Structures are given as C-alpha cells and as structure tokens.
Amino acid sequence: MIIRVVGVSVTYGSIKALENVSLEVFPGEVVSIIGPNGSGKTTLLKTIDSIVKPIAGSIYIDGKNIYNYTRREIAKILSYVPQRIDLLQNTTVIDFVLTGRRPYADFSYSKVDIDKVFEVLKIVNAEHLAYRKLDELSGGELQRIVIARALASEPKVLLLDEPTANLDSKYQVEIMKLIRRLSSEKKVAVIMAIHDLTSAYRFSDKVVMIKNGVVVSIGKPEDVITEDNIWRVFEVKAKIFRELRAVIVEI
User: Which residues contact 104 (CB under 8 A, 6 or more apart)?
Assistant: First the structure.
C-alpha cells in the first residue's frame, strides 16, 4: 500500500473534525470520500497531506511516518488540489503548470522541468492550451490544467477536493474519466472528496462514507453506497439503479 491512515483524530478547538479514522490506499486505486457538508472530507485530505496535524493516530507513506519526511519530500509524493485555487491574472497555462515543479527546482526551472510540463499537458489532452491565459479557459479546461499542475510534481498520490465542483455534466464526466485513466495507466493513487454519489459509484475502487468526522462505512462502491446508508448519513431517500450505476436522490 502507499497510504495508511491509522486511528486519526483531529479537532479544531472544541470541535471534533475527525474521530478514529483509519484507511488504506493502494497504488492505482481511486478512493472517494463522501458525506454531508462539514463531515470531515476536506480535513481528511489535509491531514493526509500533513497540512493539518492530528491529535491522535498516525499516517504512513510507503510504510514511513509522514512526519519523518521533509515538506519537500512530501511534495514529491503527494499532490493536493484544493477546491478553490487563487489564480493570478495574465498567467499562462505553461507558467502555471511549471509551478508544480517547485519541489525539484532550486533557483530556476530547467529544460527537464519544461519537458515535464509538456508531458503532463499531453497526459490531460491540453497541449494546445499551453500558451493560453488561465482566465481564457472554460471550467473543464481549467480543471484539466489544475490536475496537470498537480501531476508535474510526479506524485504517487493525488488528493483532490471536489474535482468536479461547478462543472456541467459533460465536464464532470470528462474529469472523472481522466482521473480513472491516470489511476489505471500511471498507477497514481487518487483520494478525492466528492459530492456526486453517481460519480463516486461509477469511478471508484473504494468509497469512504463519513459523517460528523466518523467513518460510517468503507469498502466497494456497491457495498457502501446503499439506500440505507444514504438515508443514515445524508438523511435523504435515494434509489440506486445498479444496471445504470446511478444514484437518484428522491425529491
């Protein structure tokens, strides 16, 4: 396995954000974290990336405690993409993606770094966007570029916070297919917080269902995303169409 989370608890002041969370992630595996707003999904991603420090429990990367790595070493293994990224005006795609090479650059970027940028742009089918400005891109194009920047550090693990948020249906499917392809072809482990239950059902190898910082269920999508569990965690009724691999919430 590449990531092992063991009994992790996190608090913000008197608020308990995560409680005794354990998780194992393997290379090439897509893991979706689902749950209501405020359930601890983003906190779990940040804790795995060592942005947030737990009050209890441990996190291991390749069998080594995360706090035995330097921040630069972690940045070469894990790449975290938050839900919102501040983008500088007039920044070109190539310059933005190049910042993903910072873990490898000391004073300036090299030809190797430039070559890597074009390599990851090709992976996400965005070579033709290299010299476009970020504010000229569509939502789907921009999300592909953000993922390319994350891939530029050559990570073993991608941590994605709501990668399909604010995208229309076409781009949601496009991004999820890209994530699935990265995991299968590049053996990158993907851990993502996601709201869309159908996407989690269709594209995940493993699903973590969480409520109030506690893992309610973990396992294969068909075992975790059930009508009973959806009611238990989200307090809404839903119908699961297994032949379509779709989840419809009742109104």
Answer: 76, 112, 113, 153
Instruction: Determine the Cα angle at 77 with ends 42 and 160, to 5°.
Output: 30
CA distances from 98 to 35, 39, 167, 203 (A): 34, 34, 24, 29
Paired tokens of 163: 């990668």
Categorise residue 245: left if φ over 0, alpha if ψ from -120 to 50, beta otherwise.
left
User: Residue 66 above 80 pLDDT?
Assistant: yes
Q: Please count the other Cβ atoms lying within 10 Å of the Cβ belonging to residue 167.
A: 20
Cα 36–Cα 37–Cα 43 angle in degrees, nearest 5: 105
Amino acid at 172: Q
Other C-beta atoms closer than 10 Å to the C-beta of 119 total 14
pLDDT of amino acid 85: 80
Number of H helices, E strands in the chain: 9, 12
In angstroms and rounded to an integer, the radius of gyration of the C-alpha atoms of the chain is: 18
Backbone angles phi, psi at 71, to 5 degrees: -60, -35
Q: What is the pLDDT of residue 83?
A: 87
pLDDT at 183 over 90: yes
| 198, 193, 2, 226: CA torsion to nearest 10 | -40
Average pLDDT over every residue of 108-131: 94
**Contact present, 244 and 219 (Cβ < 8 Å):** no
Q: Which helix H or strand E contains 58, and what residues bound it?
A: strand 56-61
| Angstrom distance (rounded) from CA 145 to CA 124 | 8
CA 155 to mean position of chain CA atoms: 12
